Amino acid sequence: MTKARISALATTVAVSGLLFGCAADGSAPNALSAGTPTAAVETATTATPATVDNFMLADTEYMGHELYRTDAKVIVLISHANGCPIVRNLSPALKALQAKYESQGVQFLMVNSAVQDSMEAIAKEKAEYGVTIPILKDANQLVGEQLGVTRTAEFFVIDPKTWKVAYRGPLDDRLDYGSQKASAEHTWAADAIEATLAGRPAMAASKMSPGCLVDFPERGKVAQISYSKEVAPILEQKCAACHTEGGIGPFAMSSYEMVKGFSPMIREVLRTDRMPPWNVDPHVSKFADDKSLTPSEIKTVVHWIEQGAPRDGATDPMAVAAKKRVVQEFPLGKPDLVLALPTYKIPASGVVDYQRPIVVNPLTEGKWVKASTYVVNQRQAVHHFLSGYLKDIPADGKGNESRWGASMGGYAVGAESTLWPKNVGTYLPPGGAIGFQAHYTPFGKEVTDASKIGLYFYKDGEKPDLVMRNSVVVDNTIVIPPGEARHKETAYLNVPKDMLLYSAFPHAHYRGYASDFWVQYPDGTKKLLLAMPRYDFNWQREYTFAEPLKIPAGSKLIAHYWYDNSKQNPANPDASKKIVWGDQSWEEMFYTAIRYRWTEETSTKLTNYDQLMDETRLLAMLDDNLDGKIEKAEFKGELGDKLSPYFAQMDQDKSGGVENAELMAALKVMGGGRRRDQAAQVPAAPAPTPPAAKAGGGR
Fold first, then answer.
1. Could you tell me how many helices (H) and strands (E) the chain has, helices first?
2. How far is CA 567 from the centre of its chain?
3. 557 - beta bridge partners?
4. What is the pTM of this model?
5. Under a CB-based contact definition with an 8 Å cutoff, are residues 51 and 164 in contact?
6. What angle, rounded to 10 degrees, do the helices at 673-680 and 660-669 form?
7. What are the CA-CA distances from residue 461 to residues 83, 249, 464, 605, 661 (Å)?
8. How confident is the model at residue 45 (pLDDT cuts 50, 70, 90)?
9. Do β-strands 358-360 and 452-457 pair in parallel, antiparallel, or remain unpaired?
10. Cα–Cα distance for residue pair 624/638, rounded to 1 Å
11. Lowest mean pLDDT, pick from 16-20, 59-63, 219-223, 457-461
12. Residue 355 pairs with which residues in a beta bridge?
């Protein structure tokens, strides 16, 4: 009897393959392989959680979505996997549901926990089937596990007031295995949305989702995880350097009891991707000194906490290791030169303008720098330091960025040291001074900061052959409208000569939400180099590529930033204000610092290629559509407002856009050379001239 029913079902599926979107080329499973009868579905279903815990996942556009960061009235999560005919068939119905309820404050998100689906594959299928709902990749399966997902096309209707699941089940009764109705008789998910919007209890579905089974290899099979053999080694290797006495972590992982006590918080920060503070997406590029936890490590720690964080073993590995940990003032070892920044008294409250102190360079002979480390005296008060060499000691004692030469490194929380690659250095001449940009933030207590920087040099006779350069993809023409949750800005650098790119350092302020970094090659093709789905203002870090990236002449290095100026942003000082570029944290920045070298340049044969790159910097700030000219609508910000009235005069060839030569000619007439330099505000520049070599121009 059972065999006959299955045979009949198989025949139905074969005849109606298109009904379920099954591909003729076999790229998708047929409906029979995708599912089993309803009774089996019900027995395979896991329990629905009473409430849904917070999480952060990136979608196929590498945009982060944190569940609890929302003003939605209802949230609908839908389980997803590529190749499932049930999910594919739902695409038109999902569009209709989204069109009906999104304007009423309902947020729709799909969650893909399928181990076999890559981000690229999900994006391809999403585009092919015209899905407009963001699809989040649950690579660690922690979200799917907590939701109790068994199959695709499961709808979870969530009430954000309580984070309770109001409904779990299929969209409706239109689809089943091997058959579908012209229209649904029961619209369970829509009914649940309506009920939740109205504050009424939702009725339970009469049966479970008919979607495809999703494999959760570790669900229900995770053996008791060992604290001493599995968890403690992960914490010691990846976390304890900061979470130690005297470290920058808020508590010390000095014993099992400390870890156990903070275990609920550890689980939360792992699920929301707040810790470790390594904010780039692991699916894009590989980086040296990667501070992130692997998926296996994340699941080990989270599953151990969910098991109750049990202890085993006669000794406590964390307590033993804590006795051996030493927080070194200079973690790279004793510097060759230590420079003390001028002390600065930071008030308990108010606003502190950027300080630009200088330190006289005591060197009597030039040195090649290979590393630097800041020792920050008042961590709570120091937001960042930047540096640049000054050929002459400023008479006013201020090291303004417009005078800077090569960078000696910078500091922000999480980025205390700067290391140059082997055989690559930056030349520090004798004499002159080093200028600093110091950003101090009051924190309720008056303190005096006495920070210092340690410099490490190549030894005599070890002169590096190659020269490190610094620049910035910057845009100080940004304008962020009030209340906008995902405002996007774009800027780029034109690369005039072949380059090796070593690192990128994204930077924004309180309203920064996400950022990415691309290369557009001369043939027009693009490659994503770095994706930061959720920018975290509390952590600033340079991301050094595992191998330097070859960037050919004629390429563009493109940065995008998204800003959250809405009330959803808990760090937003005022969602009612239009925000423009500014130094202070409640203003905004668009600032991706890069380190690179020109492939034709050596320490004895310097170039002026940085100057060539700077010549189109202003155009690259304003040219949002990357077409090589500035249309009138692209003139924005303070500078754009000043130039826009002269658009017709600047567009000398009447092409409908201002090209770089036209822009430079106009600025020259208007006396804008100085303004252009101020607009760029690039704090790090090419290396100064070493002995017996003549440097080219550039900033």
1. 19, 31
2. 21
3. 493, 519
4. 0.86
5. yes
6. 120
7. 62, 40, 9, 18, 45
8. low
9. unpaired
10. 16
11. 16-20
12. 438
Distance CA 670, CA 361 (A): 38
Query: Quick one: tokens of 326?
Result: 């030493």
Q: How far apart are CA 280 and CA 536, in angstroms?
A: 10
The candidate with the shortest Cα–Cα distance to 76, out of 137, 156, 144, is 156
Q: How many other C-beta atoms lie within 10 A of the C-beta of residue 635?
A: 20
pLDDT tens by residue, 514-528? 999 999 999 999 999
Tokens of 84: 């499932």
Mean pLDDT over 127-155 rounds to 97
pLDDT at 107 over 50: yes
State the average pLDDT over residues 640-661. Answer: 94
Q: Quickly tell me which residue has 């990128």 as its tokens.
A: 504
User: Which runs of E-coded beta strand occur in 521-565?
Assistant: 526-532, 543-551, 556-563
The CA distance from 293 to 381, in Å, is 29
Q: How far is CA 416 from CA 230, 339, 454, 470, in A?
A: 30, 15, 11, 17
User: How far apart are alpha carbons 255 and 124 in whole angstroms?
Assistant: 47
Q: Which residues contact 110 (CB under 8 A, 6 or more apart)?
A: 77, 78, 79, 80, 131, 133, 134, 135, 136
What is the model's pLDDT at position 416?
Answer: 86
Give me the phi and psi of 559, to 5 degrees please.
Answer: -120, 140
Read off the pLDDT of each residue in 432-440 and give the average, rounded to a whole number: 95
Residue of 441, 403, 335 lying closest to 681 (CA atoms)? 403
Q: Partners of 71 in the beta sheet?
A: none
Tokens of 409: 């490194």
Percent pLDDT > 70 in the chain is: 89
Block residue for tokens 């090419």: 686
Amino acid at 591: Y
Q: Kindly state the tokens that stand for 685.
A: 């520049």
DSSP 104: G
